[in-house]
Predict the structure.
Amino acid sequence: MKKPIVLFLVGAAVVLAGAVVFRTTTASETSLKWRSFNDGIAEAKSSKKKVLIDVYTDWCVWCKRMDANTYSDAGVAEYLRKHYVLVKLDAESDKKLTYKNTVYTERELAAAFGVSGYPSTLFLKSDAEPITIYPGYADAKQFKKVLSFIAEDYYLTKKFEEYAPD
């Protein structure tokens, strides 16, 4: 009578171990390396990659949803790692940073870029010149279109509506 219980417990342990390994692998595949503003700008200049700045606040529900659903999507994460330097910017922080030889707080810089709602995604060229701002939440499918539109320079010759008519 004890044998079936032991076999059941061993089987359950194997299944649970497999689930833990699966979750760990998935998390590491989708994890992104976010940099501070100054470090991100320096890396973009040397790597010649564009910069994506996720402008957020700690209280913003849609910002948390963007982290949980969009940035964690495997396809989005892979594309971001390949084409962008990633920066997080807390729009309510008094942390100091430097942009174009001027010292700003993160709050001041978000305002200088014209951010008025959260989340907002700023796109910069590798030389830190602004490209555009994408206001609000985007699901993974929509965000992939925005990412490729900017990274592959379609924004230079087309309107987004022509590029991704949905």
